[in-house]
Protein: Zinc ribbon domain-containing protein
Organism: Endozoicomonas gorgoniicola
Amino acid sequence: MIAECRECHNDVSDAAPKCPHCGVRTPVITRKKRIMTWLVFLIALPLSLIGLFILFLILVT
Ligand SMILES: [Zn+2]
């Protein structure tokens, strides 16, 4: 699928690892990728907090 480069705003394939016009890496950040990044963040953050909490309980008791 053709999308717009985030740097030079030229047409570029959303599967292209590099923009053929300006050479920027990952020229197109798809909505799917953005949602995946947020999902990973939203899952990883509470998990690490829970992990720290458990570690704290182990250390204190
Ligand atoms: Zn570009």
User: Anything to note?
Assistant: The radius of gyration is 19 Å. The first helix runs from residue 31 to 60.
